[in-house]
Amino acid sequence: MEDQWKRTALLVIDMQKDFIEEGSVMWVKGGKAIVPNVMEAVELARRRGILVVWVVREHDSQGRDVELFRRHFYSSGKLGPMSKGSAGAELVDGLVIREGDYKLVKTRFSAFFATHLHSVLQGAKIDSLVMAGVQTPNCVRQTVFDAVALDYRSVTVLVDATAAATPEVHHANIFDMKNVGVSTPTLQEWRQSAS
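-> structure tokens emitted (195 positions)
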């Protein structure tokens, strides 16, 4: 199993204050509840020698690289969500990028879209991906479907280390991903498979 872990990456998606902390315009209601499981998944990955990739959104302070439907958050000179260098763009408390981890900045839902993620993973001989973070119907799902399209050998979504605005939305998207061959274990099940 040790060789397989060296070919695996854990993608921690958008676990930033603007998504996790209540009061932000981008708040994902279910996000705060998964923080302990995300922390545990990261620690387990590190113990197993799995590459931890921190996928974060960071935007230009004027919103020039934001999707059209979100540009109104950056109008009138106000600092929009996930603006580079802002407190909201920081990882939520308890999550820390360490030496050996990799930080990937994206500006769209998928971690693969207009980034160099696929090249980084290929260069590290990664063929299996595990996903944690928010939010299930957007960034997690888009990244998963792109990983499937790019023929990653194994794609896993930790069902209780990912979240959406409601449990119903979360479970509907987990169901869809499972139907395209994505593995959807709980953190406990993944931990047991990592023993």
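Helices lie at 2-6, 17-20, 31-48, 117-123, 136-149, 167-178, 187-193.
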